Amino acid sequence: MVNTHKYPVVLFDGDCNFCDASVQFILNRDPEGLFHFASLQSEAGEELREKHQVRDDVDSMVLIEGDKVYYKSTAALRIARHLKGAWKLLYAFVLIPRPIREFAYDYLAKNRYKWFGQKQSCMLPPPHIRARFL
Questions:
Q1: Phi then psi for 38, rounded to 5 degrees?
Q2: What is the pLDDT of residue 61?
C-alpha cells in the first residue's frame, strides 16, 4: 500500500509527452524533493486511484495531498505554489473561477496528443530521482 501522507503525489498520464515534460518541469523546480510521482497506468497509480476514489476515466493531472485529491488546473496551481522561483506566483490564478480555469485546462488536455504526441517508451529516471517515482 502506497503511503501518501508523507508527501504529495502527482498522478500523470504516462503515455503523454506533454505530461512527461510537466513531470520533468516539476522535478527541475522542486529542489527539496517534495513531490513524488506515479503514472496513472502504473500499479501504484491504479492503487492510488482506487484508494482515493479517482474515476477510471480521469486522464488529467491529479494531485494527492494527504487525504485530499485535486484535479486539473487546481492540481497544477497547487503544485506551482511549491516550486522554486516565480512559478509560485501562478497560484494567484486560483482566484479565477474554476469553470474558466477548467475550460482552458480541458482545451489543452484535449489536444495534448495531437500537439505533443504520445510516448513510445518510458524514460528511466536517474538513480537520485528514481526513488520519487512510485
A1: -150, 135
A2: 86
- At a CB cut-off of 8 Å and minimum separation 6, what does 130 contact? 124
Dihedrals φ, ψ of 91, to 5°?
Answer: -60, -20
Please provide the distance, in angstroms rounded to a whole number, between the alpha carbons at the two ends of the chain: 11
What's the rounded Cα separation, in Å, for the pair 41 and 51? 15
Whole-model pTM: value is 0.82
Please compute Rg for the chain using Cα positions: 14
Rounded to the nearest 10 degrees, the angle between the axes of helix 17-28 and helix 98-116 is 110
Percent of the residues in the chain that have a pLDDT greater than 90, as a whole number: 48
**Is the dihedral angle over the CA atoms 32, 35, 38, 40 positive or is it negative?**
negative
pLDDT given at position 16: 65
